């Protein structure tokens, strides 16, 4: 969450510093938020059909592609594509990460910590990212890419190390009906 929140915090400034019109940047950001809403709907639609690892690796890869789109030059097209891909992938991956905690946490006690962890990541990531920006946004892009790669490797390692379980607070009946 560090790199992604740091990047999203300064994406508007990146567009403005690159000479893009304020109205275009605002519309691109609105489109990005719409892409995030679509990601929520798709996460709900695909549910468990795609598993946990595949979507995370795919979303993190999309974030890396989005960063690459503006790595060399920021144009209106590259900016729009970056914002749309990034926000879609970020929101989809946050949903999958939250689901992963519920699947791997036997007691359900760590699920309540998800918003706090995200909040700490958003605060620290934004502060750190702001200090990275000097004459160029490249250090910010590198930071976001590095944290995204770390997320892929950590996620694959954690999900491969421990078998997934259903949370213990969900009771399953033998006749197929469940009670919570």
- The SS-based structural class is mainly alpha
Question: Which word captures the global form?
Answer: globular
Number of beta-strand segments: 2
Classify the helix fraction into a percent range.
over 70%
- Number of helical stretches of at least 4 residues: 6
The rounded distance between the terminal residues' Cα atoms is 31 Å
- DSSP strand content: under 5%
Radius of gyration: 18 Å
Largest sheet: 2 strands, antiparallel
What's the average pLDDT?
A: 85
The largest sheet has its strands arranged as 1-2
Describe this structure in words.
By secondary structure, the chain is an all-alpha fold. Helices cover 72% and strands 2% of the residues. It contains 6 helices and 2 strands. The chain has helices at 2-17, 22-46, 53-69, 76-104, 114-132, 138-161, and strands spanning 171-172, 178-179. A two-stranded antiparallel ribbon has the order 1-2. It is globular. The two termini are 31 Å apart. Mean pLDDT is 85; it is low at 166-174.
């Amino acid at each position: 969450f560090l790199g992604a929140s740091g990047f999203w915090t300064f994406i508007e400034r990146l567009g403005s510093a690159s000479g893009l019109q304020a109205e275009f940047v605002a519309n691109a950001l609105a489109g990005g938020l719409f892409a995030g809403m679509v990601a929520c709907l798709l996460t709900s639609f695909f549910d468990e059909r795609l598993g946990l690892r595949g979507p995370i690796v795919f979303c993190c890869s999309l974030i890396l592609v989005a960063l690459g789109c503006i790595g060399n030059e920021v144009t209106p097209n590259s900016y729009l594509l970056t914002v749309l891909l990034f926000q879609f992938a970020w929101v989809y991956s946050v949903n999958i990460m939250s689901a992963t905690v519920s699947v791997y946490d036997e007691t359900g006690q760590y699920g309540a910590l998800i918003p706090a962890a995200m909040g700490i990541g958003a605060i620290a990531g934004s502060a750190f990212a702001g200090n990275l920006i000097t004459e160029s946004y490249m250090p910010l892009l590198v930071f976001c890419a590095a944290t995204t790669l770390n997320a892929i490797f950590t996620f694959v390692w954690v999900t491969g190390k421990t078998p997934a379980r259903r949370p213990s607070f969900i009771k399953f009946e033998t006749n197929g009906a469940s009670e919570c």
